[in-house]
Amino acid sequence: MSQPRLLLNVGEPAGIGPDLCVALAQHALPPLVLIGDIDCLRHRALQLGIPVALEPWDPDMPWPADRHVLAVWPVPLARPCRAGQLDPANAPAVLEGLERAVSLLQAGLADALVTGPVHKGVINDAGIPFSGHTEYLAARCGQSEVLMLLAGRGLRVALATTHLPLRDVAAAINADALERSLRLLQQGLQQDFGLAEPRIRVTGLNPHAGESGHLGREEIEVIAPVINKLQSEGWAITGPWPADTLFTPRFLEDTDAVLAMYHDQGLPVLKYHAFGEAVNITLGLPIVRTSVDHGTALELAGTGRAEIHSLLHAIQVAAEIVRQRRLNRTPEA
């Protein structure tokens, strides 16, 4: 079985994405192509004192095999980049890198996409509506439903809603949307992680999972009926659980994944548990996409203090998912 071919979009050039990418030269990697401004990468490597060979690459060339050279598919920035200083003029290049990556994946010329951190604010300041990688890639791939899953140190947390103001969360949680999210989670755990019968726990929305309706009725009227329906289909799924109870070792030790109702219900626990080693995975896409678990960290860019562990894990998980999907497609002898 051939090695997975990975694309890595550098992300926001003023952030730590370039720092982490040039540091990859010090690690053994599967076949990998960076997508970004090669001059920015060279300048950041010089600034950090990292010796690295960066060579231009394009899809008409053979897939890079020399582990001592980092291949770069160049996407020039509009203006020279300075570490830590955002420039809206450079935001279109970040999205151009994503566009190129998706096109290559859809053509079957690459196997997975790893994304460096982007800065949503500066992209919107450039006049480009952008709420996040997950939503952008879903639209680009023509998928109406995807699911954000973060995983690290044995804990997997998926989100029923992602980048919404808290005041809009309750209205977004309805039976149809919740069932679709759970089916994406079940399918992703089976297809990408090889779990034949994944054990899923679902949080409630309200404190104490609604306290029998005294603190909200979403658990009674929306969440529990969906769980009951899936249990009747033979799923190993339980809930709705109070989040402050569910996210404890006793409950998590026999759980393959948790579906949390909103961003800051599930992710603070995951990041406290595994920050710097966690990976963001988009379930429901026709392509494989993973990402780091952190942001652009502008204050660390160019300082040499950025930690590379999450990026290394994102690369490793992307390669593992590619291999798992290949196994799923392999006919039994």
UniProtKB/TrEMBL annotation:
Top-level taxon of origin: Bacteria
Sites where the protein binds substrate: 133-134, 271, 280, 289
Q: What class of enzyme is it?
A: oxidoreductase
Q: Which residues form a coiled coil?
A: none
A Gene Ontology molecular function term of the record: 4-hydroxythreonine-4-phosphate dehydrogenase activity
Q: Which UniProt keywords apply?
A: Cobalt, Cytoplasm, Magnesium, Metal-binding, NAD, NADP, Oxidoreductase, Pyridoxine biosynthesis, Zinc
The pathway is: Cofactor biosynthesis; pyridoxine 5'-phosphate biosynthesis; pyridoxine 5'-phosphate from D-erythrose 4-phosphate: step 4/5
What is the annotated localization of this protein? Answer: Cytoplasm
- CC cofactor: Zn(2+); Mg(2+); Co(2+)
The record lists a divalent metal cation as bound by: 163, 208, 263
User: Which family is annotated?
Assistant: Belongs to the PdxA family.
Quaternary assembly:
Homodimer.
Free-text function comment from the UniProt entry: Catalyzes the NAD(P)-dependent oxidation of 4-(phosphooxy)-L-threonine (HTP) into 2-amino-3-oxo-4-(phosphooxy)butyric acid which spontaneously decarboxylates to form 3-amino-2-oxopropyl phosphate (AHAP).
In the UniProt entry for this protein, what further remark is given in the free-text comments?
A: The active site is located at the dimer interface.
Q: What is this protein called?
A: 4-hydroxythreonine-4-phosphate dehydrogenase
Encoding gene per record: pdxA
